[in-house]
Amino acid sequence: MAVHAHPDDESSKGAATMARYVADGVEVLVVTCTGGERGDILNPAMDRPEVKADIGKVREAEMARAREILGVRQHWLGFVDSGFPEGDPLPPLPEGCFALEPLETATEPLVRAVREFRPHVMLTYDEKGGYPHPDHVKCHEVSVAAFEAAGDPDRYPEAGEPWQPLKLYYHMTFSKDRILALHNAMEKAGLESPYGDWMKRFEDETDKAAKWDVTTRVPCGDHFETRDRALLAHATQIDPNGFWFVVPLDVQREAWPTEDYHLARSLVDTELPEDDLFAGIREKVCL
Fold first, then answer.
1. Helical H runs in the chain?
2. Any known ligand binding at 9?
3. I need a labelling partner for 174 at 20 to 30 A (CA). Which of 78, 184, 193, 220 fits?
4. pLDDT-derived band of residue 284, with 50, 70 and 90 as boundaries?
């Protein structure tokens, strides 16, 4: 089960991993917390009045195409996008949005989804949300709370029979090591790297160590093309001529053929580093 804040997040974080496991016969469920109703249109070709007027329905249709491409099931939690506040000072979040929901209230439908789907592994963001969007931070909080509550019969007793997932991971999609590897590979190939601003940012953060280390690298380079097709399905959010597609797939596969995670919780024994989200679980099942 991969828990995400908005439609399109599942395609930019962990999509090739999901496609790999689907190809291996694993059943995968994407849980989308909000409808992305307050998201900006990031593709100039889709910046049209009729799209803006019905952005929620448009993004719902985009999600349907992406989940078909990835071969996953998908479930909406039904919360309302909080939007990304900008300005100084920051404006208040809109009333009724996901980020303002009480944690106990926001966790219940995810606990229900966990107990119904019965995943062995859950994926989510770290406590900063991957980037500081209020819905991403809330998604982290809700995911951790649901992981801890779903197996407890005293928590949310009306939300189905208890089920305890065995492992919880945080996405580490944009780790410094990966960005450096891709940047260097582009320069080695004589191509212009899209990561120039990232490199400057890394120089400014030389004294700041990453809080979460990468514990798990899942080989999935064979599924990068599927990931990209799923991204393109989110046409309001992804410019086909934009940043996501600058690095050729063969360069990506050569420089960094994995998607990476931090193992945040585990109820099974496993040896780090891992190359499989189900390490320790497959062995447990075989006993």
1. 9-12, 15-23, 49-53, 55-70, 103-117, 134-149, 176-188, 196-204, 224-233, 249-255, 281-286
2. yes
3. 78
4. low
| 136 annotated ligand-binding residue | yes
C-alpha 169/C-alpha 24 separation (Å) is 20
Number of helical H runs and strand E runs in the chain: 11, 7
The pLDDT > 70 percentage for the chain reads 96
Phi-psi map region of 78: left, alpha, beta (phi>0 left; psi -120 to 50 alpha): left
Q: Tell whether 67 is covered by a domain.
A: yes
Q: Classify residue 221: in a domain, yes or no.
A: no
Q: Which residues form the domain of 14?
A: 2-171
31 and 80 both lie in a single domain: yes
pLDDT of residue 287: 43
Residues 180 and 111 in one domain: no
How does pLDDT run across 14-26, given as a tens digit for each residue?
999 999 999 999 9
Whether residues 9 and 146 share a domain: the answer is: yes
Question: Which CATH number belongs to the domain containing residue 71 in this structure?
Answer: 3.40.50.10320
Q: How many domains is the chain partitioned into structurally?
A: 2
Buried b / exposed e along 126-142 (16+ C-beta atoms within 10 A): beebbeebbbbbbbbbb
* Letter string b/e over residues 36-71, b meaning 16 or more CB atoms within 10 A of that residue's CB: bbbbebebeebeeeebeeebbebbbebbeebbebbe
Q: Is residue 65 part of a domain?
A: yes
pLDDT band for position 206 (cuts 50, 70, 90): low
DSSP secondary structure code for residue 53 in this structure: H
